[in-house]
Amino acid sequence: METKLKELKMQLLEIDDLESAAALLSWDQNTYMPPGGAPARGRQMATLQRLAHEKSTDPALGKLLDDLQPYAESLPPDSNDACLIRVARRDYERAVRVPPSFVAQFSEHTSASFQVWKAARPENDFSQVQPYLEKTVDLSRQLADFFPGYEHIADPLIDFADYGMKASTIRAIFADLREQLVPLVQAITDQPPADDSCLRQTFPAADQLAFGLQVIHRFGYDLTRGRQDQAPHPFTTEFSVGDVRITTRVRENNLGDALFSTMHEAGHAMYEQGVNPELDGTPLAQGTSSGVHESQSRLWENLVGRSRGFWRFFYPQLQDQFPDQLKHVDLDTFYRAINKVERSLIRTDADEVTYNLHVLLRFDLELRLLEGQLAVRDLPEVWRERFQADLGIAPPDDQDGVLQDVHWYAGTVGGMFQGYTLGNILSAQFFDAALHTHPEIPAEIEQGQFDTLHGWMRENIYRHGRKYTASELIERVTGGPLDIEPYVRYLQEKYGELYHL
Amino acid sequence: METKLKELKMQLLEIDDLESAAALLSWDQNTYMPPGGAPARGRQMATLQRLAHEKSTDPALGKLLDDLQPYAESLPPDSNDACLIRVARRDYERAVRVPPSFVAQFSEHTSASFQVWKAARPENDFSQVQPYLEKTVDLSRQLADFFPGYEHIADPLIDFADYGMKASTIRAIFADLREQLVPLVQAITDQPPADDSCLRQTFPAADQLAFGLQVIHRFGYDLTRGRQDQAPHPFTTEFSVGDVRITTRVRENNLGDALFSTMHEAGHAMYEQGVNPELDGTPLAQGTSSGVHESQSRLWENLVGRSRGFWRFFYPQLQDQFPDQLKHVDLDTFYRAINKVERSLIRTDADEVTYNLHVLLRFDLELRLLEGQLAVRDLPEVWRERFQADLGIAPPDDQDGVLQDVHWYAGTVGGMFQGYTLGNILSAQFFDAALHTHPEIPAEIEQGQFDTLHGWMRENIYRHGRKYTASELIERVTGGPLDIEPYVRYLQEKYGELYHL
């Protein structure tokens, strides 16, 4: 068994090496690659991914996993090896269910769809993408059908990102959340709007980057095992537990953009950096779900980075970095500016309170498209109605409505959006749990100290990687299931105080 | 046959994709990778190289090449497809001759040897590397013996870098060259030394990089298909014909270092950028030999970049970039400084005239080690004697003597050094040929114009990639075989004038 386990690890390591190489090619494409490199680069990444997929579905791997099953059952279920065999088997069984011809067809279709969407969005022309999106819905249903026995047709698609979560559970949770959020947004937007003009001056890019880097360094992002580069869209990528990088986009006329996205990506990156090094090179060395991953980015970005205590420490430093722009702006004005709530059209620019309404809308529409309850041709109109109902405004066009996010036009319909809001909910639940054990954390944050908070996250969440599913992890960490109460309480308290509700 | 040819190209493309990915991982390791990434990176590169090697020696590839042989013979021998099949077959036959177990053994040995050398050189302790180097000689002989029928045991090793060149030919050419160089060095060093103190002031790194980049951009290095980054050792790397990058090392107390190495690497890079795009992704899309490759780096670095005409145009700009350092240094003083000849210990720092004596020494000692005429334990002493005889000084220690270059301690003994001097010889031969067709080139260089020279190189050398062997290419371009006369004449004229000989 020792030999077979070693053999399994070697095969998984080879797959991991190919995937990590593909990730580096993608990082380079987004950071430093000269334009002339593009045509070959697309092909090179596809080759590495194809080889990784071939090896992930190799029957010899399935045989090894079968042979190792009795051994896995003889081990303590929480042991690294038992978890490795369990998760590798889950990945293998998922990968072999989808025929390679379908994978190729789907990938070809999404490439074509993405190209059409890139042209259609600036032209504000939904009719161009409509036939592609219809086919995407159809293919997404076919993909789900390779995993029979589901309760809801979205469940297998949700599983890809948030294993074990079900449409019915999420739908119920999101409905509860919506009931709380819609009146909160209403109450806030009945008040005079916050003034965020202080963020819209000119802030040199290099200074913004330097400040952000200094903040995340204090958070505990390890720069000997990571780095920050500029890219058109911010992202986090991991080549090993010793090399987890973030990218940032800087807008010189918007101080918040780079700053909060740097903290956001650092949250993702600290999760990956915090995985137990013994798991490196295995399928366990990743975040356990998109929701738990997002809980970390949102925790560091919002619960920490948009808190008053945090800025009590950092705002004088920010003023020193940008004296001309900020010396006459007091802390309270700045704090209100970075927490301004408004009815807006674009999800990625939305504030903490309205953000989830954008996500909930998409999640519900995804389910209805998959259920056949909503036709693609009716989607723009239904989007507008729901937007009006939830956010009190309606998009004037499709460009900033149904066409705004790339997700449905370059991936599946289903499973794409729930992680964002699950992450927000979990960020408050995990933060609460950390504070329960360490009530000194808020005071430490006011001193620019993050060791206790970071240490708790590493100990309770990061180091486990994918050893536990999201549900298992939530249960271990909070003693109960996913729960919106801490998150709703956090929003009500913070924004109640800010907007004198 | 169409189908089989397509199949061949697809198999070769997959190998190329893996090798290009490995090259990017290596580029990243040398430029941006944080230190924590090192352990996994070594393994990831090894995995990609192993997979590329497996696919390069796949019997199915051999079968395809066999099947295509009659078709290849029916094509015009200069056609892209005939050349592709011919070169792919040559590569395949070479790759399958060496058993995988030997490849693994050799690679393990060179890794260990490299680690020992890294410690032994600063400690000036040849005895540490001696047993490793003895084994390297032994393994190099074994490697050569996988290619029986050679005239000299170094020939198969030379073939890896300079296909078709023979030890006997090179030895005779190098002996002729040495006969010319030793008295030339003697005559020059009898004169008062040039004053190069103007190069040894402080020159800010960013300004050095900006100036160098501007120069190579004028040469014709295409920055939409390449880029320059800093690295501990300068190198050129290619991921496709659309993405050929260089790296530069900057020393703030030495103006020549970054400047000439930037031009050097740009010469390599323009060669790779100039390959016919139709050959991209095939084994033909590379320089044809290490000698021809080096002819391009040395041509742009020395025949162009260290010429008086070049600096008539660029020196005023350099003075503008570094006014404090250079405004009182006249062109003639600067020109003498960058062409200072001296008896020195380190090959990579040597001037144009003495440089080849460093190479010739290594080449001759390589052959004698392989022939069994020289024992490794006697190498340091023999090195010193030969150095004294050729360069008129003796290294005071092994650190700056036999231990100075990494080549023998991380590769084969044999085939490692001849390319440097073949490149110097060819640089003058090719430059002569270009001037024969375009006598206006020197006048253009004085105007900072390089289109004619670059265009001639692209048309006659670059675009062919590996379609022709080095010997075929030299014959096509110059109408004759490799010939030292133009190079010796170039050195005698240039340095005769400089040193009033």
User: Largest beta sheet of chain A, briefly?
Assistant: 3 strands, mixed
Total strands of chain A: the figure is 3
Quaternary organisation of the protein chains: homodimer
Residues in β-strands, percent of chain A: under 5%
SSE topology sketch:
Two copies of one chain form a homodimer.
Chain A: H1 2-31, H2 38-56, H3 59-74, H4 80-97, H5 100-120, H6 126-145, H7 155-161, H8 167-189, H9 205-219, E1 228-230, E2 236-240, E3 243-248, H10 255-273, H11 290-304, H12 308-321, H13 323-326, H14 331-338, H15 352-371, H16 379-391, H17 407-410, H18 418-437, H19 441-446, H20 451-460, H21 470-478, H22 485-498
Parallel strand pairs in A: 1-3
Antiparallel strand pairs in A: 2-3
Mind explaining what this structure looks like?
- The structure is a homodimer of 501-residue chains.
- Chain A is an all-alpha fold and 501 residues long.
- In chain A, strand 2 and strand 3 form a beta hairpin.
- In chain A, helix 8 runs antiparallel to helix 15 and helix 11 crosses helix 18.
- The longest helix of chain A has 30 residues.
- The mean pLDDT of chain A is 97.
- At the A-B interface, helix 1 and helix 2 of A face helix 1 and helix 2 of B.
